[in-house]
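Input record (one chain):
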Amino acid sequence: MFINDFLCGGQRALWLLILACALATTAIHAEPLPLATDLAATAKMAREQRVPVLIAFTLKTCPYCATARRDHLEPMYVSEQWRDKAIMLELQLDGAQPLRDFAGNATTAREFARRFSVRSVPTVIVFNDSGKPTATPLVGLSSGDFYSLYLEQAVESGLIDMRYPQPKPQ
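The corresponding structure, as predicted from the sequence alone:
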């Protein structure tokens, strides 16, 4: 026998709705942000694609980082609307994770974070291809209603910087 034989129309619709929501939630959160390891190579890709680099500075054990990751960053990363507008990476500050910076120099995740005055997590910074921040860093996890908007504004600012660079003063 099939489950349909046991459920009337209303119950069947409810179960289908629950199943659809469960599958949608799994699909949205199934793809984590890639970890930053070589920002020089990332900068080259950003230059070729003319998109900024979004870096989320996190800690593995930080509950606010988990919320930002799950509710905002990962859905943005898999969204067709935003996926091709930025290279999105996570930089975990736990331990002494080795990293190659935008200039190709060997450093650590913590040292790189110190250069940009990252003192709390989560912090999100959007960079251009030369490693310069293109918007004010997003520090902490603000209201869920506005956090995604702030992320989108930061990416849009980075896109403007990458696609319409300001001439350098003479």
